[in-house]
From TrEMBL:
<feature type="compositionally biased region" description="Pro residues">
    <location>
        <begin position="13"/>
        <end position="22"/>
    </location>
</feature>
<dbReference type="InterPro" id="IPR007995">
    <property type="entry name" value="DUF742"/>
</dbReference>
<protein>
    <submittedName>
        <fullName>DUF742 domain-containing protein</fullName>
    </submittedName>
</protein>
<feature type="region of interest" description="Disordered">
    <location>
        <begin position="1"/>
        <end position="35"/>
    </location>
</feature>
<dbReference type="Pfam" id="PF05331">
    <property type="entry name" value="DUF742"/>
</dbReference>
Length: 139
C-alpha cells in the first residue's frame, strides 16, 4: 500500500474566509473587546485601600443605589449573606485586586461591612470539658 500524495492548495482553491462577526454596534468587522480592569474600578486617586484579605467576610448593609456600577450592584446583591472576598472574586470572575478596590469604595460609602472570620480554637477549654463531664456524672 502506498501513502497518499500530498497536494498543494492553489490560492484559488482555498475556502473563502469567514465573515467577521458583527459587533454590538451593528457594524461588520467590529468585535466587542473586553473591558479593561481599571475601567471597572473607576477613577481612583491612588488613595488607601481597605485592609482586606482573602478570608475577610463581607456583608451588605444597604441595597444597590441607582448610580452604582454594574459590578458594585452585583457585589451588593451577592453579599446579602456573609461571603469571603475569595468567594466574591470567584463568583464575579474578577481578580482579587479589583474586588478589593470595589470593596474599598463600598466600605467608604458604608454600603457593606467587613468582618473578621470566625476563628475557632484548636483545643477546647479543659475546665469547660471537666464541668460538662461532672455535670453528666451527676445525672
Amino acid at each position: 500500500m502506498t501513502p497518499p500524495r500530498r497536494r498543494r492548495r492553489d490560492p484559488e482553491q482555498q475556502p473563502p474566509p469567514e465573515p467577521a462577526p458583527v459587533g454590538p454596534g451593528g457594524k461588520e468587522g467590529e468585535q466587542r473587546q473586553p473591558e479593561r480592569l481599571y475601567i471597572l474600578t473607576g477613577a481612583t486617586d491612588g488613595g488607601e485601600r481597605a485592609s482586606i484579605d482573602l478570608v475577610t467576610l463581607i456583608v451588605t448593609c444597604a441595597d444597590p443605589q441607582p448610580t452604582a456600577t454594574p459590578e458594585q450592584s452585583a457585589l451588593l446583591r451577592l453579599c446579602r449573606s456573609p461571603l469571603s472576598v475569595a468567594e466574591i472574586s470567584a463568583y464575579l470572575s474578577l481578580p482579587f485586586s479589583v474586588v478589593t478596590l470595589l470593596l474599598t469604595d463600598l466600605l467608604a460609602a458604608e454600603l457593606v461591612q467587613a468582618r473578621a472570620p470566625v476563628v475557632r480554637k484548636a483545643t477546647p477549654d479543659r475546665s469547660l470539658l471537666e464541668a460538662v463531664m461532672h455535670g453528666l456524672e451527676k445525672l
